[in-house]
Amino acid sequence: MLHRKIYQLCCDGREVWIFLRDQQRWIERAQILDIEGDLVTVRYESDEEDEVCSWEEMIRLDSIGSVMQRLATVPKGNFDPLIAEDCPEAEQIRNPQSDSNDS
Length: 103
Prior knowledge:
By secondary structure, this protein is of the alpha+beta class. The protein contains two helices and five strands; from the N terminus they run H-E-E-E-E-E-H.
């Protein structure tokens, strides 16, 4: 099951967060490049002191404890979210402050 999901994430090319249970660490904002047998190749960047390092790492499938992906981001603060014209009203996000100003 995990192998199939990782393959799907690889095809999508989306950023993921991977927890390595044998090292008890997270790899943040990684891109899954390839899956060959039980080896997963990922690429990610890390900030070290005054430089940004780019890494490519091969991970055994059984070392992966968790994989997460960001579904959406919403900026904080007072703003009116953009709504697509074809978005059903039941799925629209409403700003409570703008709703109270309408009355």
